[in-house]
Design a protein that fits this description.
Immunoglobulin-like; 5-stranded antiparallel beta sheet; FN3_dom; 202 residues; mainly beta; single chain
Length: 202
């Protein structure tokens, strides 16, 4: 009898923390030695499926396409399973566009306390292919326990923010979120707060 290899399921092109990743689950009853191959097509060249070198005959059930996919154009990916001489049909994901659909990660804050000032900058876990985009961040500063936050908006990620702390005394906290102005303004969740003790007599 002819053995049909079941196709991969739940094929999804998803964005997480600046990355674009194709994920799937094995088809029902897949043998343990099953391997997967991924290709993608862009809306600029429909029906031209492009090979992804690092996702050919792989055992894992995901493929990172972050710096493989072209920017500013909708793309989709497909995956098929193979085992021995059997192959499954291809299964396609939905179309996505990196800029519009990418999900941002919160930045990591670096806080340097000096006398009368604090210097704050943010680093982002960015893939090299999107380093040059105008990523920004919004910063909050507040006294621990207070709801009253001072906001610093739209700071370019390369810039350090210097805050005069002459008038501040006690425990102050900072957090930030990544933001990106494309067609649509989007931003990440806020990072975990970083708290520092300012101008305490001690």
């Amino acid at each position: 009898g002819h053995v049909q290899l079941r196709p991969p399921q739940n094929v999804t092109l998803l964005s997480k923390d600046f990355d674009m990743i194709l994920t799937w689950t094995p088809g029902e009853g897949s043998p343990p030695d099953v391997m997967y191959t991924v290709r993608y097509e862009s809306q600029e060249r429909v029906d031209k499926w492009i090979k992804v070198r690092h996702c050919k005959n792989i055992h894992r059930t995901f493929c990172n396409l972050t710096c493989v996919l072209p920017n500013f154009v909708k793309v989709r990916a497909r995956v098929k399973a193979a085992s021995g001489r059997f192959q499954s049909p291809w299964v396609e994901s939905q179309f996505k566009e990196y800029h519009l659909d990418v999900e941002l990660a919160p930045p990591v804050l670096h806080v340097n306390v000096e006398q009368k000032v604090i210097h704050v900058n943010a680093s982002f876990p960015l893939p090299t292919c999107v380093e040059s985009f105008s990523w920004m961040y919004d910063l909050n500063l507040w006294e621990a326990g207070s709801e009253n936050k001072k906001q610093y908006k739209g700071i370019f990620r390369k810039n350090t923010v210097t805050i005069d702390t002459t008038a501040l005394r006690g425990n102050y906290c900072l957090n930030a979120r990544s933001s990106f102005q494309s067609i649509d303004f989007k931003h990440s969740k806020f990072s975990q707060p970083v708290c520092v003790l300012l101008n305490s007599k001690g």
